[in-house]
Amino acid sequence: MSLPEYIPDALREDYEEACKTVDVSPKASATLARRCLQGMIRDYWGIKKSRLVDEIKALEDKVDPDTWQAIDAVRGLGNIGAHMEKDINLILSVEPEEAVALIELIEDLFQTWYVQRHERQQRRKRVVEIADAKRQEKEENKSVSGHHAKEESQGPAAIS
Questions:
Q1: pLDDT of amino acid 158
Q2: What's this model's pTM, rounded to 2 decimal places?
Q3: pLDDT by residue (tens digit) across 130-151?
Q4: What is the rounded (10 degree) CA torsion for 68, 74, 80, 83?
Q5: What gap in Å lies between CA 86 and CA 44, rounded to an integer?
Q6: Which residues lie closer than 8 Å to 14 by C-beta, 6 or more apart?
Q7: How far is CA 52 from the centre of its chain?
Q8: Tens of pLDDT, residues 42-55
Q9: Mean pLDDT along residues 86-99
Q10: How far is 156 from 17, CA to CA, in rounded Å?
Q11: What pLDDT, on a 0 to 100 scale, did the predictor assign at position 86?
């Protein structure tokens, strides 16, 4: 997925790196997806807390339950690469298809949060531009009508 320029550079970079590393290191890819998700929550929603788990909890009442559950799952899977287990001998792996599923969720959130917001803004901007043009056209027509009415009231002698 090619991301538009209005998505912040840091988010695009983490996403692109997650995509590039998915086959080489799914665990690294999942960690980058987690990092990208945290950046999205901070940028789009303005939620900034010291821990991702707290940011996700603050997001719970802002998104639908299915989305929230999936977002929390990204955190959990991304934690496999981001945090060492208490028992360092416990090694959890992330499979490529699991990392791909995280990336697909990130893509869905880019679409839902950033692309759809941008498209809404563009449509609203266009409506305002149309209204402004019509308002200007109306003012110009009033000015021309007023000029003709003045000429007519003065008669032909006043025009020459």
A1: 52
A2: 0.78
A3: 999 999 998 888 877 766 655 6
A4: -70
A5: 33
A6: 32, 33, 35, 36, 39
A7: 18
A8: 999 999 999 989 99
A9: 75
A10: 78
A11: 60
3-state SS, one letter per residue, for the chain: CCCCCCCCHHHHHHHHHHHHHCCCCHHHHHHHHHHHHHHHHHHHHCCCCCCHHHHHHHHCCCCCHHHHHHHHHHHHHHHHHHCCCCCCCCCCCCCHHHHHHHHHHHHHHHHHHHHHHHHHHHHHHHHHHHHHHHHHHHHHHHHHHHHHHHHHHHHHHHHC
State the residue for tokens 């003065």.
154
Q: Which two tokens stand for residue 118?
A: 């941008």
> For residue 74, what pLDDT band results from cuts at 50, 70 and 90?
confident
As given in the structure block, the two tokens for residue 21 are 């590393």
Give the amino acid at 36: C
Copy the structure tokens of residue 99.
Answer: 């990392």
Ramachandran area for residue 94 (φ above 0: left; ψ -120 to 50: alpha; else beta):
beta
